[in-house]
Amino acid sequence: MKRMMLTGALLVAGAAAVLAQPTTAPPAQAAPAQPAAPKGPAPKSAAELTALQAWQAAAQANDPDALIKATDEVLTKFPDTDFKPMLLSTEASAYLQKKDWIKAQIFGEQALAADPKSFQASLVMADAIGQHIGDHDLDRDEKIAKAEKYAHQTIDLLNTAPKPRPDITDDQWTGYKKPMIGQAYHDIALAEMTRKGWDASIAAFKSAIENDPQPAYEVQMAQALQQSGKNDEAIATCDKVLAEPNLHPAIASAAKGIKAAATQAKGGK
Predict the structure, then answer these.
(1) CA neighbor of 218 nearest in space, from 254, 175, 263
(2) pLDDT for 246-263, tens place per residue?
(3) pLDDT score, position 71
(4) Which of 25, 27, 143, 253 has the most CB within a 10 Å radius?
(5) Entry pTM
(6) Cβ(90)–Cβ(59) under 8 Å?
(7) Do 164 and 257 belong together in one domain?
(8) Is residue 91 part of a domain?
(9) In angstroms, what CA-CA distances link 134 with 176, 187, 190, 193, 243?
(10) Residue from 106, 73, 69, 66 nearest 89 by CA
(11) How big is the CA angle at 22 (ends 44 and 158), to the nearest 5 degrees?
(12) What's the pLDDT tens digit per position in 132-167?
């Protein structure tokens, strides 16, 4: 999943700079001329550094099982690690990648408890809850509200999140954040589709596409347009998607099906 890869890359990049630093303790006193800069997370021992390097390798391999194992090893051996919020967030993301929605939520909640400003964790929560709501779930409305809360929280956190490393330019940081903001809007759009709030869903899809123009988002927006009776807009959106080069067959099939339904609804053939 593109967004998962991007989130993992950001977390690894943030850790890499620290892991490259020596683990020796800083001088006891900072220079009195000016206040010291905020101290970032750092390994507390050579053993922790080694465990974090193993975790980093697992994250770069994009193997969710290996990442879960490496994360558990770090947290078991070094429960007070400065990297705890990041580790819990990546473990939540790994379980989401494995489609284990329950464990994704469990670790997402733990990550937010460790760091309430973790936009990775709040996005995992929005994904894990919002994308798996059944029309007939007894707690459907509660799940929709929670998914939307976490999605809006993610957007707010990302809009104010500081750069994880000073060598990342403002444009690069904006580029990193946009797909995650798009995913959060996508979660809102899906939640609104579940409650049949078509106008709100379409607006959220447009925001998702503005931040991350994925054909999959456009097809889902076309479905919301068709369901709301905006058949001409649905057809135009499907035509735009179908003109995309190298379109995934599943997306092409969905676009053709939605276009056919919109055409039929208009009285066409």
Answers:
(1) 254
(2) 999 999 999 999 999 999
(3) 92
(4) 143
(5) 0.82
(6) yes
(7) no
(8) yes
(9) 31, 14, 11, 11, 32
(10) 106
(11) 70
(12) 777 777 888 898 999 999 999 999 999 998 887 788
